[in-house]
Write a structure and sequence with these properties.
The complex is a heterodimer. By secondary structure, chain A is an all-alpha fold. Chain A folds into 2 domains: 121 residues, no CATH class; 30 residues. The longest helix of chain A is centred in the last third of the chain and has 27 residues. Chain A is elongated. Chain A starts with 26 loop residues before the first helix and ends in a 9-residue tail after the last helix. By secondary structure, chain B is an alpha/beta fold. In chain B, strand 17 and strand 18 form a beta hairpin. Chain B has 2 domains: 260 residues, FAD/NAD(P)-binding domain, CATH 3.50.50.60; 157 residues, Cholesterol Oxidase, domain 2 (2-Layer Sandwich), CATH 3.30.410. The longest helix of chain B is centred in the C-terminal third of the chain and has 20 residues. Chain B is globular, with a radius of gyration of 22 Å. Classes of the chains: A mainly alpha, B alpha/beta.
């Protein structure tokens, strides 16, 4: 048997909002996790929702086994908090900011497979946060105008050379090859 | 509508096709073979699991690129201590669409070692040079136009040269690269001469057919030879689409060092050598994050402009490569307020690191229901070299004026000067604390003239199964020690030419 196809293939040009997304599992725990691992500004506006939307899209691109592993990591994180003494038996989603932050730090400081999995979850969520255009602009990263400007410069400076190179791509086979 | 290209949107029912040669994969190996064979008049079908994403669709969206152009969202993991994150391209054009475009010939010492160790035929310098020359002409390999070099690269070069180290400018497959620093998200100008804009359209123009969004399940056989492949289209959302059967007289497998051995194994093929799926090399990479007082805006300029070659004899290359904010946020060991403070300095950051030519190996195993699973064990020797590479990288960054650096070791303190660096590294770095990733996967169907040592012969023919040819980095008998793309293309071109020379025996 073939293995599972590991990810969906959105059609080219599919608008971001229409790409296949997976349902974010254990949404309350995921929301709380995003609030803890992203910078405090994540609480501005609807950023947490936007992060979770990106996160859902990212989950949608993972193979089923990876999706299950990340869902398991969220359960582990959420329910594991009950065993963390300062939580006084509460699950992660119900912890206040201070306890939730301390709990995540304690989990990530461990050197075991669960910590590695939750570390990957953290990477995915923070990656989704820094994908948000307004967050990128806040840290001075705004590539679209730059890309447009250097693309124009390229064409202005080297237009004929570029056109000749592009035309050569589909020319008949060369004679100078072995 | 591109002539010869079929995507899942174009297919409503099962397809049964015939051709001379079917090629699995459209990356550096597959697209090259397709263009060569189509140019010789062979009837070619290429099957690509990923989608067709034209240049106009590429943007600076990192997470979107990971979802659409990479396998598994770019999050492959080779399990070990430490585990190594790896990425594979999965789209028309394969990893050449998302790589940095570094184009280097196989180092002569590596070529000689491979030739002697595996008894490879026609593998001398004079045998391979004509292929490299042809590739470099076709893919416009050369140096960057100077106005496209960013400050992060300039700083790293200055730091290394300040220490007296040898630095070389990168050779890249680019047609007047604009320096958008968007290589890993797909080149938005088409300047990077990936397979998407070179060998794929060339093959199509010469009559090849390309089926995208189509996963090959098995190679089919009858008697002593191959008869083609079976597979299925993949609908959006990962749903299984219509089936595909291709009858062909030869099959070329070019899925890369993870997918190729996996496909061969799930097709029931065994290598008498016992080496199928073994000997995986990964060129472990690590990232040092350095903070400067002045703005660097490393995202303005080419992805990677220079390589420090001073330590090449130790199997170490050092480079500065800008990471986009999402990638950097995912890599640095920080979260919450600390992450926000760190990222607020994004424009003052230079990211650089070592690439290690590894001596350890890994293995790709096909597990039922899970697909290929990758295991890799970093050796103590390689771990020590990663630590040395990190130390050297950090030294160069301090030499360039960095005020503090973050090291890719779990729990490592922030380092503020070379003396602090030496203090941290005075004690051995725990191997499992290394944070490693790989973008170079090689060697799981190695070529050797001796069927007891290798999976394929000198020209990629699978030992014991005529008509099955491998044409990707899985052929490498070991780590190439440098960016592997040009070696992959040279081997693919060579294997394709060999197939054409023997076309009568293949009846194509």
């Amino acid at each position: 048997m073939a293995g599972p196809s590991s990810a969906p293939t959105p059609a080219p040009g599919t608008p971001a909002g229409r790409e296949p997304a997976a349902e974010v599992p254990f949404r309350r725990a995921a929301r709380r996790f995003a609030e803890v691992v992203c910078p405090p500004e994540v609480r501005a506006g609807r950023r947490v929702d936007e992060v979770l939307r990106e996160f859902g899209l990212m989950l949608g691109s993972l193979p089923p086994a990876a999706r299950k592993a990340l869902a398991a990591a969220l359960v582990l994180l959420d329910q594991g908090a009950r065993l963390y003494p300062p939580s006084r038996g509460r699950r992660f989603a119900r912890l206040d900011d201070q306890a939730a932050g301390a709990y995540v730090r304690a989990v990530l400081a461990r050197r075991d497979p669960a910590a590695e999995l939750i570390g990957r979850l953290r990477s995915l969520v923070t990656m989704c946060y820094y994908e948000l255009p307004e967050v990128q602009r806040e840290i001075g990263y705004d590539p679209a105008p730059y890309i447009a400007a250097v693309s124009r410069r390229r064409l202005e400076s080297y237009g004929p050379d570029i056109r000749a190179g592009e035309a050569a791509v589909t020319a008949r086979p060369e004679r100078d090859t072995p | 509508m591109i002539s010869g290209l079929v995507t899942q949107e174009d297919v409503s029912g099962r397809l049964s096709l015939e051709c001379g040669v079917v090629i699995v994969g459209s990356g550096a190996g597959g697209a090259t073979v397709a263009a060569e064979l189509a140019g010789a008049g062979v009837d070619v079908i290429v099957i690509e699991e990923g989608g067709y994403h034209p240049t106009e669709s590429f943007s600076a969206g990192t997470v979107r690129a990971l979802r659409t152009l990479y396998r598994d969202g770019g999050g492959g993991m080779a399990v070990g201590r430490p585990s190594v994150l790896y990425t594979e391209g999965r789209c028309v054009g394969g990893s050449t669409v998302v790589n940095g475009g570094m184009s280097w010939r196989t180092p002569d010492r590596v070529r000689q070692r491979w030739a002697e160790q595996e008894g490879l035929r026609a593998f001398g310098e004079q045998d391979l040079d004509p292929y490299f020359t042809a590739i470099e002409s076709r893919l416009s390999v050369g140096l960057q136009d100077p106005e496209t070099i960013g400050r992060d690269s300039e700083l790293f070069r200055a730091g290394a040269q300040g220490l007296g180290w040898a630095v070389v400018p990168n050779r890249r497959n680019q047609l007047h690269c604009a320096g958008t620093n968007n290589c890993s998200n797909g080149c938005p100008t088409g300047a990077k001469q990936s397979m998407l804009v070179t060998s794929v359209p060339r093959a199509l123009a010469l009559g090849a057919r390309l089926f995208a969004d189509c996963r090959v399940d098995r190679i089919t056989r009858a008697g002593d030879g191959v008869t083609g492949v079976t597979g299925h289209f993949v609908r959006p959302g990962g749903r299984r689409g219509p089936g595909l059967t291709v009858r062909a007289r030869a099959v070329v497998v070019a899925g890369g060092a993870i997918q190729t051995p996996s496909l061969l194994a799930r097709s029931g093929l065994r290598s008498a050598s016992g080496q199928l799926g073994r000997n995986l090399s990964v060129h472990p990479n690590a990232v040092v994050t350095a903070f400067f007082d002045q703005d660097v805006t490393g995202w303005q300029g080419v992805h990677q402009a220079f390589q420090v070659r001073e330590f090449a004899d130790e199997g170490l290359l050092l480079t500065a490569t800008n990471l986009t904010p999402p990638m950097l946020a995912a890599l640095v060991p920080a979260h919450g307020r600390e992450l926000g403070e760190l990222m607020a300095d994004y424009n003052r950051i230079v990211t650089a690191g070592p690439l290690v030519s590894d001596t350890g190996t890994g293995r790709v195993r096909q597990l039922p229901g899970l697909g290929p699973q990758v295991f890799y064990q970093l050796t103590d020797h390689d771990a020590a070299r990663v630590a040395r590479g990190v130390e050297l990288t950090a030294e160069a960054l301090f030499s360039a004026g960095a005020r503090r650096v973050l090291l890719p070791f779990g729990g490592a303190p922030v380092v503020r000067d070379p003396a602090g660096l030496r203090r941290v590294l005075a004690r051995p770095v725990a191997k499992r604390s290394l944070q490693l990733f790989s973008i170079h996967l090689m060697g799981t169907a190695r070529m050797s003239e001796d069927p007891r040592r290798g999976v394929t012969g000198s020209f990629g023919e699978f030992h014991g199964l005529p008509g099955l040819i491998v044409a990707d980095a899985s052929l490498f008998p070991g780590p190439v020690g440098i960016n592997p793309m040009e070696t992959v293309i040279a081997l693919a071109m060579r294997n394709a030419r060999r197939l054409v020379e023997r076309r009568d025996s293949y009846r194509v």
